[in-house]
Amino acid sequence: MPAPRALGERRPLLPRGTRGPRRWRRAAGAAVLLVEMLERAAFFGVAANLVLYLNSTNFNWTGEQASRAALVFLGASYLLAPVGGWLADVYLGRYRAVALSLLLYLVASGLLPATAFPDGRSSFCGEMPASPLGPACPSPGCPRASPSLYCAPVLYAGLLLLGLAASSVRSNLTSFGADQVMDLGRDATRRFFNWFYWSINLGAVLSLLVVAFIQQNISFLLGYSIPVGCVGLAFFIFLFATPIFITKPPMGSQVSSMLKLALQNCCPRLRQRHLARDPQGARLWPDQRSPQPGPSPQEDIANFQVLLKILPVMVTLVPYWMVYFQMQSTYVLQGLHLHIPNIFPANPANISTALRAQGGNYTIPEAWLLLANVVVVLILVPLKDHLIDRLLLRCKLLPSALQKMALGMFFGFASVIVAGVLEMERLHYIHHNETVSQQIGEVLYNAAPLSVWWQIPQYLLIGVSEIFASIPGLEFAYSEAPRSMQGAIMGIFFCLSGVGSLLGSSLVALLSLPGGWLHCPKDFGNINNCRMDLYFFLLAGIQAVTALLFIWIAGRYERATQGPASHSGFSRDRG
C-alpha cells in the first residue's frame, strides 16, 4: 500500500502506466545515486591531496599544519550536517536544500583552483611573506619561531563553506533518496542505503584514480578544476531529474521542542516561568488544548526518551571516527615519508617527448593507497548484500547492527596498531640515517627506504571496519529513530562523526606543542623527528577503551528495546 501523501507533497510530473510507479521510482533513485557519486568524486578530489597541496611551495605549511587543516575540513563536512538538515526541515524542504547546497558547493570548490596559480593566489591571499633572516639556532633544543600561515583565513573560510555544502548535501540527499524508493517497500529502502554507500565509494575510485594523479604529477590547477566540473554536472543532473522526483514540503523541526524539554527538565525555574506566562494553558490537559501544527507534547516526550537511549550508543562511536579519518590525514603524511616508486622508469626508451620534458617520470600518487580502502568497500558491499547477509539470515546467525558496529571498531583498532608498528620501523631507518630523497610535487621529502605499499594493510583494515561500523551505524540511526525524528537523528549521526575528526585534529594540535610527540623542526614538512608512532598507539588505546564501553552500552540498549518499552506507541512508529 503506498504511503499517505503529506500536505504539499509533489509527486512525479511525468505520466506513468501500470508498471510506471516502480520504473520511475527506480529512475529517481538512480538519479540520486548518480548525483551522490559525482558529489563524492568532487569531495575526495578536494580531500585526497589537501595535505600535499597545503604542504607544497604554494603555501609552505608544515605537515602538522596541513594535517590539521585537512581534519578541520573533514570534521566540518560532518559536524555541520544538522545545520543543513534543520534548514531543510524548517524552511527549504529537502529538494531545495540539496539544490542550494550544490550551488554553494560549486562556488566554494572554485576557490582551490583559483589559488593554485600565482595571479589568483595573490588576488585572494596577497603576496607570500618572505622568511625572516636570523642567526642560526645555537643549540639543538632551542625554540624556533613558527611563521604565520600564508593564506590561512581565505583557505579556512573556503574549506568551511565547502564543508557546510558537503554536509548539507550528505544529510539531505540521503533522506531525499530514501523518499524516492519508500513506496517500493522496506527492503527497497534498506538496499538503497547499501547502494548509496557503494556509490560514494565508486565516486572515490574515479576521483583517486584520475584527480589525485593529476594533482600530484601534472598540476594542482587542473586537478582541482575537475571537482568543480563534477559538482557542476551533479547540479545539472539533479535539476534535470526534477520531474520524476517526489518532493516534500518543510514540516518543521523538533529541535526547539527538544531543547525546551531538556532545559525544563534540567532547570525547573524555566518551567515555572513558562507556567507563569501561560497560566490558562498550564491548567489544561494536553488533549484539551487547541491543536498546534507539528508533533504533540506526548510525541515530544516519547521522542526525547528515544533520543536519550540512542545518543549514548552513537557518542561511544566517536573514537572510531577519530581513527577512521586518519586515513585522509596522518596516514597520507606517513606515506609521503615512505619510498613512493615511479610509474615510469627514469628516461625509458618509449617515453614520449612531453613526458620527458616534464621530468621523465611520474610518481604513484600517495592518495592511491586510499583505493585499498575503497576497493574493499566496492567488493564487499555487493557481496554482503547478495550473499553473506542472506546466508547468515537463512542460518539465523545474522548479527544485529550494534554487534556489527562493535566488530568494526575492532578492525579500526587493528588498523591504527598496524600504522604504529610501520611508523616504528620507518623511524628505525631514519635514526640510522638510511633515507632516500624523493620529490613529490614541488616538495623534497627525506623518506625511509621502506616501500609505501607497506601501508596497504592499514588501509584494508580501515575498509573492512567501514563495512561493519559505518554502514550498520547509518542503518541504526535511520531504523531506530521515530519517523518524525529520522532527519534529526541522521544529522546527529553525521555530526558526531565530524566530532571525531575534530577531536583527532585537536589531539594533533595538542601533541604538536613544544615537548609533544608531534613537535619537530619545521624542515619542509618532514616528520622524521616526530614520534607519530606514539600518537597512533594512543589512538589505539582510546579506541580499545571506548569499544569496551560501547559493548556495555549497546548490550543495555538491546535489553531495553527487547522489553515492554519496545511495544509502546512511539516504538511502533519507527521508520
Give structural notes.
By secondary structure, the protein is an all-alpha fold. It folds into 2 domains: 20-126 and 151-243, Growth Hormone, Chain: A (Up-down Bundle); 300-344 and 362-563, MFS general substrate transporter like domains (Growth Hormone, Chain: A). 66% of the residues lie in helices and 3% in strands. It contains 22 helices and 3 strands. The protein has helices spanning 20-47, 50-54, 63-79, 81-109, 111-114, 118-125, 152-181, 186-217, 220-240, 255-266, 268-277, 279-282, 297-315, 318-324, 330-335, 353-357, 370-394, 401-431, 456-479, 486-511, 532-561, 569-572; strands at residues 338-339, 436-440, 443-451. The protein has a 3-stranded mixed β-sheet with strand order 1-3-2. The radius of gyration is 26 Å and the shape is globular. The chain starts with 19 loop residues before the first helix and ends with a helix. Mean pLDDT is 76; it is low at 15-19, 281-293, 346-360 and 564-575.
Descriptive tags:
single chain, mainly alpha, Growth Hormone, Chain: A, 2 domains, 66% helix, disordered C terminus, MFS_trans_sf
